[in-house]
């Protein structure tokens, strides 16, 4: 934040005092939310709206506030019912049903290096799409490599070149989560593991896969929370942009 520039803009009557106050405070006060207007300056990406647990009216209000910043706007965990309202209110937005994400102003410039998003099974695609849409919204090229789990490991080897050539790899798996250890042992790139809640009883809603990934003997593997495709993609995006020299 350039304080001098903001004050000069007010002096020149180029910026309303109310907007200057918002920029100087670093957040917008909406009563039910304090929207972080300096997130991109601090972290490289603007604030993301977590849609689950918020009313559609709250999501609309936060989105309207973020629109004044002119940055990419990503809302995650948005139900189909809420999406109907958002699409009516923001006709330029796109709802990605599998990802449960609503996106406005996605980055139009994509990186040369790509993020490979790899799933063990088709049942993991919902989490994978959350990761893919997050990464693409923030300007990353993405390659989707789905349903290559260890139960048919020849499918993984048939796609191994695409995985090895990625800048960073996100591996998403439920059940026992074994795929991440296999991939981690085959590539020389950062691997971000996402355990999913997919699996039978002793999967324990993803805890078994989480523990398995945390105990992986493959070096270079980091692990995010259960079903957290967004968190994996956020970290992968930072890594990919560093590799691009941005």
CATH class of the largest domain: Alpha Beta
Mean pLDDT: 91
Q: If classified by CATH, what would the architecture of the largest domain be?
A: 3-Layer(aba) Sandwich
What share of residues are in beta strands?
A: 15-25%
Annotation, overall tally of beta strands: 11
Strand count, sense and barrel status of the largest sheet are: 5 strands, parallel
Number of helical elements: 11
Q: Distance between the terminal alpha carbons, to the nearest Å? A: 19 Å
Secondary-structure element string: HHEEHEHEHEEEHEHHEHEHEH
The percent range for helix content is 25-40%
Characterize this entry briefly.
With 246 residues, the chain is α/β, with parallel strands linked by helices.
Task: Explain this structure.
With 246 residues, this protein is of the alpha/beta class. It has two domains: 14-104, no CATH class; 114-244, 3-Layer(aba) Sandwich (Rossmann fold), CATH 3.40.50.1970. The protein is built from eleven helices and eleven strands. The protein has a five-stranded parallel beta sheet. It has a four-stranded mixed beta sheet with strand order 3-4-6-5, with helices on both faces. Helix 6 packs parallel to helix 11 (229-244). It is elongated, with a radius of gyration of 20 Å.
């Amino acid at each position: 934040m350039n304080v001098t520039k903001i004050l000069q803009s007010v002096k020149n009557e180029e910026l309303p005092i109310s907007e200057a106050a918002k920029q100087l405070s670093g957040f917008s006060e909406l009563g039910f939310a304090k929207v972080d207007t300096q997130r991109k300056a601090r972290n490289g990406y603007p604030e993301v709206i977590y849609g689950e647990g918020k009313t559609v009216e709250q999501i609309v209000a936060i989105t309207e506030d973020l629109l004044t910043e002119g940055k990419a706007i990503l809302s995650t965990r948005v139900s189909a019912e809420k999406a109907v309202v958002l699409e009516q209110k923001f006709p330029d937005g796109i709802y990605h049903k599998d990802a449960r994400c609503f996106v406005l102003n996605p980055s139009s410039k994509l990186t040369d290096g790509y993020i490979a998003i790899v799933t063990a099974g088709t049942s993991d695609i919902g989490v994978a799409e959350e990761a893919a849409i997050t990464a693409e919204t923030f300007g990353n090229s993405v390659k989707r490599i789905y349903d290559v789990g260890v139960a048919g490991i020849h499918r993984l080897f048939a796609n191994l070149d695409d995985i090895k050539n990625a800048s960073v790899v996100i591996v998403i798996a439920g059940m026992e989560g074994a795929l991440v250890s296999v991939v981690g042992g085959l590539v020389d790139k950062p691997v971000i593991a996402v355990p999913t809640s997919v699996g039978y009883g002793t999967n324990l809603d993803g805890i078994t896969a989480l523990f398995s990934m945390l105990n992986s003997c493959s070096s270079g593997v980091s692990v995010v929370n259960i079903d957290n495709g967004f968190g994996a993609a956020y970290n992968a995006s930072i890594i990919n942009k560093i590799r691009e020299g941005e």
